[in-house]
Amino acid sequence: MREGRRTVATRVLIIEDDADINQIVATRLERDGYLCTQAFSGSEAKLLLERGLKERAEGKAMGAAFPFDLIISDLMLPGTTGEELVTAIRENGADVPVIVISARTTAADKIDLLRLGADDYLTKPFDLDELAARVEVQLRHRGHTVAASGAKSTLRFREWELDHEARTFTAAGTPVDLTRIEFNIVEMLMRHPKRVFTKQELFEGAWGEPYAADANTVNVHVSNIRTKLKPTGTADYIKTVWGMGFKLVG
């Protein structure tokens, strides 16, 4: 289990036994400012939820909150199924929104899950942007202010400025036209300017797909970004960390 490091953020539990899918979802949501906890089996998720429900019950008089603001869960899980987890959550009175992601595509499957207490259903393969949008919708329905989740719409680093919502990027006051992938890479770097990102992390976060084990793909996109930044005099903000990946330098 891996937990994000943000101290104040909307908390999301991701339950998915496919490690690649789990990591891709976590990387995307963390980029959007959410605090992600990852569980890789139904049994692991059950322990986390039971602990949370127990703490909530013991501290109810003091207004204790459920430890997660939203849950994303697969159905076919080792140990405890997604259906059993959803049932347990609702039987214990937790109002946390639950989004199910599954390869099951029939209308009957979706109806059954919604009747059990799931709030939304997304079939695999799914689009990460659509998942992120559905997360926002469910949080708003529960009264969460999504903009306060920890994700900043406008990011600044030295002479760079990036607007996540408007999808615009300027360097030294000059607008720079980036492709979708290039924009995602720059945004990841700017959200964590002190962190070294591996090529795998950049690939999975920017493309929203499992790593293709082709480091040259990431290298080419970073090279294209640097080329576009040269006229602004800020191309050297992106540093290559040999044998590891890339980071920003202040």
Automatic annotation (TrEMBL):
Domain Response regulatory intervals: 11-139
Signal peptide: none
PROSITE patterns associated with the record: OMPR_PHOB, RESPONSE_REGULATORY
InterPro entries the UniProt entry points to: CheY-like_superfamily, OmpR/PhoB-type_DNA-bd, Sig_transdc_resp-reg_receiver, WalR-like, WH-like_DNA-bd_sf
Gene source species: Enorma massiliensis
4-aspartylphosphate modification, residue list: D74
GO annotations of cellular component type: cytosol; protein-DNA complex
Keywords from the UniProt entry: DNA-binding, Phosphoprotein, Two-component regulatory system
Record's keyword annotation contains DNA-binding: yes
Boundaries of every OmpR/PhoB-type domain copy: 152-250
Name assigned to this protein: DNA-binding response regulator
Xref: SMART domains: REC, Trans_reg_C
GO biological process, alphabetically ordered: regulation of DNA-templated transcription
